[in-house]
Design brief:
The chain is 44% helix and 19% strand. By secondary structure, it is of the alpha/beta class. It has one domain: Glutaredoxin (3-Layer(aba) Sandwich), CATH 3.40.30. The chain is globular, with a radius of gyration of 17 Å. It starts with 5 loop residues before the first helix and ends with a helix.
């Protein structure tokens, strides 16, 4: 796995998924992405803007302030949907493999999802992550970043049929998620780089993000 880039892993997973999932399910998933792309939801902040200040619990429940982390250096900030999302797990593991390079550049990596600290802890343990994983229950911080969207009822039904219990993972019956977004944030809180896409299968390649970080 280490020598495959994330895009290749995604492509392999997508082709396997297409063999397994019914055309109807695939059509509905595509429809949900198209509807989200056409809506104004989840557009996200852009380069040059300042990020909102936030303090969130990590996987062990300790409160972590982004201000404290930025005092030490720049931050790669990535919003993911949850440990139930295979694309998120591939992305989180890819960042883990690049963590030494990120630290060598004087930066820190922070991943945020609407999961509870307990669910974040199992995501962290499952993927053997050595970086900060924060719980944004209720998507309050993701809302401040303008990333939140509501899953359409037909997609909620598909998720439930597939055994994805977001209500338990997020301790919420809202069925809202952040779109996948990655930022490089300078020490003064300004966004130097952003990659936000409605399609959760379209994400910045972590090695490209680290290359951008080194150019700061």
């Amino acid at each position: 796995m280490g020598n495959l880039n994330m895009r290749q892993q995604y492509d392999e997973y997508i082709s396997a998924f297409k063999k397994k999932a019914s055309p109807e399910v695939q059509d509905k998933m595509s429809q949900a992405i198209a509807e989200l792309e056409d809506s104004n939801a989840g557009q996200g902040l852009t380069a040059g803007e300042k990020i909102p200040s936030f303090t969130l619990p990590d996987a062990t429940g300790n409160e972590v302030s982004i201000k404290d982390i930025l005092e030490k250096g720049p931050v790669i900030l990535t919003f993911y949907r949850g440990g139930w999302c295979p694309y998120c797990n591939m992305e989180l593991r890819a960042y883990q493999e690049l963590l030494d390079e990120i630290h060598a550049a004087g930066a820190e990596l922070v991943a945020i999802s609407p999961q509870t600290p307990d669910a974040s802890l199992s995501t962290k343990e499952k993927n053997e992550l050595d970086y900060v994983v924060l719980s944004d229950e209720g998507n309050k911080t993701a809302e401040d970043f303008n990333l939140v969207y509501k899953l359409p009822p037909y997609l909620v039904d598909i998720y439930k049929e597939r055994g994805l219990d977001l209500e338990k993972a997020n301790d919420s019956d809202e069925w809202t998620l952040p779109v996948s977004a990655t930022y490089i944030v300078k020490q003064d809180g300004t966004i130097a780089y952003e990659y936000t896409k409605a399609d959760y299968k379209d994400r910045a390649e972590p090695s490209d993000v680290v290359a951008e970080l080194k150019n700061l």
